[in-house]
């Protein structure tokens, strides 16, 4: 049984309930830029990618960087306008994160958000130093490239087999696979658990507290095994 020391979380759709705002902002950006709206499901399917990659995935017909940049700027304006009060955490997230810290886990964030976007939220929450490290899509390779996770592992001094990636998108879980890391699939965010099952997560949850319960049971089981071995 792997002994996890580092818990890495996606942000949107995993820790915070922001999927609706992301979809709305992308629709509004399309309207502003004279582009056809994509379906809600199409927008959800690109959540987790860096914004430029997300836009070119939604609109592969765009052949000029300036067009992508225009939609990106419009999206950012629309999202920030809605996010003056940051999106709420999902139930039990704050309590569980505090518990994980008390239990000695290192905590990290690996997100498709920009550094500016994540930092704005962390500053608002007073969480500037809450996580051991946070990595954003505009300062490293976009998911599902494993570079983001490797940088987190290097910073924390933890091997991949002792880290766990928790996310709500295929990009999160595929990134973890490519890094040689176990993952947890979240079913209340951008994608369904049935869609995420193809990436062989160690655990699938539809409520954040289930992660807390699972990790606690693993610790208890490990202690029992160690006690039996000593005896």
Molecular structure report:
The chain is of the alpha/beta class. The protein folds into 2 domains: 6-17 and 88-230, HAD superfamily/HAD-like (Rossmann fold, 3-Layer(aba) Sandwich); 19-82, DNA polymerase, domain 1. It contains 10 helices and 6 strands. It has helices at residues 19-32, 40-45, 51-58, 65-82, 93-102, 115-125, 147-156, 170-179, 193-196, 209-230; strands spanning 6-9, 106-111, 133-136, 163-167, 182-186, 203-205. The protein has a 6-stranded parallel beta sheet with strand order 3-2-1-4-5-6, sandwiched between helices. Helix 9 (193-196) links the parallel strand 5 and strand 6 (203-205). Helix 1 (19-32) crosses helix 4 and helix 3 (51-58) packs across helix 4 (65-82). The protein is globular and about 55 Å long. The protein starts with 5 loop residues before the first strand and ends with a helix. The mean pLDDT is 92.
Give a topology summary.
Layout: E1 6-9, H1 19-32, H2 40-45, H3 51-58, H4 65-82, H5 93-102, E2 106-111, H6 115-125, E3 133-136, H7 147-156, E4 163-167, H8 170-179, E5 182-186, H9 193-196, E6 203-205, H10 209-230
Parallel strand pairs: 1-2, 1-4, 2-3, 4-5, 5-6
Helix pairs in contact: 1-4, 3-4
The CATH superfamily name of the largest domain is: HAD superfamily/HAD-like
Mean pLDDT: 92
- Briefly note the CATH topology name of the largest domain: Rossmann fold
Name the structural class.
alpha/beta
Short note summarizing the structure:
The chain is an alpha/beta fold and 231 residues long. The chain has helices at residues 19-32, 40-45, 51-58, 65-82, 93-102, 115-125, 147-156, 170-179, 193-196, 209-230, and strands at 6-9, 106-111, 133-136, 163-167, 182-186, 203-205.
